[in-house]
Amino acid sequence: MKQKIASPAKTREILNQYDFIFQKRYGQNFLIDLHVLNKIIQAADLSSNDYVIEVGPGIGSLTQALAEEAGQVIAIEIDKQLVPILQETLKEYDNITILNEDVLQVDMEELLAKRPLGTAVKVVANLPYYITTPIIMGLLEKKLPLEHITVMVQKEVADRMRAVPGTKDYGALSVAVQYYCEPYLVANVPAHCFIPRPNVGSAVIQLRVLEEPRIRVENESFFFQIVRAAFAQRRKTLLNALYHYFQKEISLSKEEIVSCFKVMGLEEKIRGETLTIEQLGTLSDLLYSMIRKTSSNTK
User: Fold this and answer.
1) Overall pTM surpassing 0.90 (yes/no)
2) Which helix (DSSP H) or strand (DSSP E) does residue 297 occupy?
3) 162 and 136 in contact (C-beta within 8 Å)?
4) What is residue 299's predicted lDDT score, i.e. its pLDDT?
5) pLDDT tens digits along 13-44
6) What is the pLDDT of residue 131?
7) I need a labelling partner for 135 at 20 to 30 A (CA). Which of 99, 109, 258, 284 fits?
């Protein structure tokens, strides 16, 4: 049986062997708890038919476990000093491909086009906390054929992803993630499970990608503009937030916005964080229709 990388002793041995220097700019925290690792693997529900993308493999702690369960693992690592370490620690596995690239620059459509036919695509990773949201939203907005995304993130971010309307954590990220996915908390993870210890709490969350977005909207791009505007200034009422936004983008009067509120039975003083994703979708469609109507009348 191969020795597990994800243990305090083995991790320290590897780090010392290669005189590894942590790069703060990459937010590197290596998992050293096998119990947490097993929870991730169990949640990912892997099989030999799975094509797994891992972002930020580090020294290969999670990569090793993924390779033992999945058919193929693509490990994307930005730090070039980790590539020779990964090549050594994972040399016994022939189903791992290491890419020394910035995940935000990788052409995911092209990458997935190379996978074997019929394989299920899953993202499983201990994400760099400083770019968690751009990575996840980048994957979701491209509408890639993903079954689920199971990732370690900052606990605060996990809370925001699964938050419900009317709570302090509910915001634009909650709506964006839940538009595409069903989020489930897998586990909370204390700081002592990493080397070095992060200064924040962590959590493993699984985002099960929906076959179709949760709601149908007339214009998806416009819907997300409305969502961003609704949560941009939480102290403002939704009416004022939207009016402020439309003054910069498109000229819509407060009266026109209020008329859309009335169709939905919304009070003028309502705040954006109280609206469900369905209500935001309906409001988006009403405002979009109002804009098109106003635009055609001025021609």
Assistant:
1) yes
2) helix 277-297
3) no
4) 52
5) 999 999 998 887 778 899 999 999 999 999 99
6) 92
7) 284
What the chain holds in terms of domains, given with CATH numbers, is: 8-209 (3.40.50.150), 220-297 (1.10.8.100)
| Residue of 92, 85, 79 whose CA lies nearest to 17 | 85
Question: Chain centroid to CA 46: how far?
Answer: 19
Q: Which of 70, 54, 4, 3 has the alpha carbon at shortest distance from 32?
A: 4
Helices 220-232 and 172-180 pack at an angle, to 10 degrees, of 150
**pLDDT given at position 24:** 79
Q: Is 176 in contact with 182 (CB distance < 8 Å)?
A: no
Please state, in angstroms and rounded to a whole number, the distance separating the CA atoms of residues 295 and 299: 7
Q: Smallest Cα–Cα separation from 136: which of 111, 110, 157?
A: 157
Query: Cα separation of 6 and 59, whole Å?
Result: 9
pLDDT at position 240 over 80? yes
Q: Which of 119, 109, 183, 120 is nearest to 143 (CA)?
A: 109
**How many whole angstroms separate alpha carbon 158 and alpha carbon 64?**
25
In degrees, rounded to 5, the angle at the alpha carbon of residue 174 between the alpha carbons of residues 170 and 177 is: 175
Q: Give the length of the chain.
A: 299
Q: Can you tell me the distance from the alpha carbon of 257 to that of 264, in angstroms, rounded to the nearest whole number? A: 11
Mean pLDDT of 201-209: 97
Please tell me whether residue 183 adopts helix, strand or coil conformation.
Answer: strand
Q: What is the DSSP string of 191-211?
A: GGGEESPPSS-EEEEEEEE-S
